[in-house]
Write a structure and sequence with these properties.
The chain is of the alpha+beta class. The protein folds into 3 domains: 6-49 and 196-350, Beta Barrel (Elongation Factor Tu (Ef-tu), domain 3), CATH 2.40.30; 58-84 and 161-195, RNA polymerase II/Efflux pump adaptor protein, barrel-sandwich hybrid domain (OB fold (Dihydrolipoamide Acetyltransferase, E2P)); 85-159, Helix Hairpins. The protein is built from 4 helices and 23 strands. The longest helix is centred in the N-terminal third of the chain and has 36 residues, at 86-121.
């Protein structure tokens, strides 16, 4: 659905011309000014979480604790599931023992190598013996490196028994219960983060180039238009709908928005010049909308006008009834008094 959202002028950072203020006699006036506002395309979008994932087991064992449930808020790094670590602790102890054994064997190999090297320097042993001793020393060094790697792996497996939340979010699904046996890859818990959200919209292919050029948009949250931090246009169209997917990144910490919600979105597709007047200059009388126009000679007259939607700074868009450069009274009550005075003066001259 097309629409021109004049209230998005400030959101899209459009620079407006300042209204000049002048005095006609004692009547304060302002000029009807032409300003540039964005032309936007309005449509519905769907909210989704940037971070939405399922945490799975990375080790084997029986589940001992499940510390969170659906709709619980979980802080990043919090332990959400505890797996029995008996096997992992035993594997770590075995790996550490193997490392000590390998280090002891390396120490013996180093001593033997140093002894043979000195003897070889006096030509007391053959080169074959020297090479064999060196190979034994190198093999012992490799065994120590492998044993250290095994210790690191065993430590990691032990850490995997305490499953932690990768980010702050809300639990959306719990797939495990206490007592169940899990293996690497078993889903444990699903969650989403409400700190980073985005809105997906489908834009007609006729407008996608304009959207890609401008890359600015806003989302209506409650009664307020919130500017998108980033607009991403997907490079491939959907052949069934002839639309392109556009993703609008919302600012962090937006309140009252949840994944799956439908929100109004607006994407800038160009610019347009409009005529505006200050809001205090507009008079609303029943169904009549007008302004008090002051001509170059200071004469005051009530002019009926047709308004569009106001800009975000409050100024009204004038669709018809007024021209650029014409001056309107800022204070309608003062304009009425001036108009009455001018009518009396004309009447006195005619009399």
């Amino acid at each position: 659905m097309k629409g021109i959202l004049w209230k998005l002028g400030a959101i899209f950072s459009i620079g407006f011309a300042q209204l000049g203020i002048a005095l006609a006699g004692e009547l304060e006036t302002a000029g009807a000014t032409v300003v540039e506002v964005p032309r936007v395309y309005q449509l519905d979008g769907t909210v989704e979480a940037v971070n939405a994932s399922t945490v799975g087991a990375q080790t084997s064992g029986q589940v001992k604790e499940v510390r969170f449930d659906v709709d619980d808020l979980v802080k990043a790094g919090s332990v959400i599931v505890v797996i029995d670590d008996t096997q992992q602790r035993a594997a770590l102890a075995q790996a550490q023992a193997n490392l000590r054994q390998a280090q002891a064997q390396l120490a013996d190999a180093e001593k033997e190598y140093n002894r043979i090297r000195k003897v070889f320097a006096r030509n007391a042993v053959s080169k074959a013996v020297m090479d064999k001793t060196r190979a034994a020393r190198d093999q012992a060094r490799a065994a120590v490196a492998a044993a250290r790697a095994a210790v690191i792996q065993a430590q990691q497996q032990l850490e995997y028994t305490r499953v932690k939340a990768p980010y702050t979010g809300i639990v959306t699904e719990r797939q495990i219960e206490v007592g169940e046996v899990v293996a690497p890859g078993t889903p444990l818990m699903s969650g989403i983060s409400l700190e980073r959200l985005r809105v997906n919209v489908d834009v007609p292919q006729s407008l996608v180039e304009a959207v890609r050029t401008q890359r600015r948009g806003a989302v209506l949250i409650g009664k307020q238009w919130v500017p998108a931090r980033k607009v991403t246009v997907f490079p491939v169209a959907d052949p069934t709908t002839d639309t392109f997917k556009v993703r609008m990144q919302l600012p962090s910490g937006v309140k009252g928005v949840y994944p799956g919600m439908y929100l109004k979105a607006a994407l800038e597709v160009g610019k347009r010049n409009v005529l505006v007047v200050p809001p205090q200059a507009v008079v609303f009388r029943s169904e009549v909308v007008g302004v008090y126009v002051v001509d170059d000679e200071g004469r005051v007259s009530l002019r009926h006008i047709r308004l569009g939607k106001p800009l975000v700074d409050g100024r009204f868009v004038v669709l018809s009834g007024l021209s650029a450069g014409e001056r309107v009274a800022i204070d309608p009550q003062a304009a009425v008094r001036e108009l009455i005075a001018q009518r009396r003066e004309r009447a006195s001259h005619e009399g």
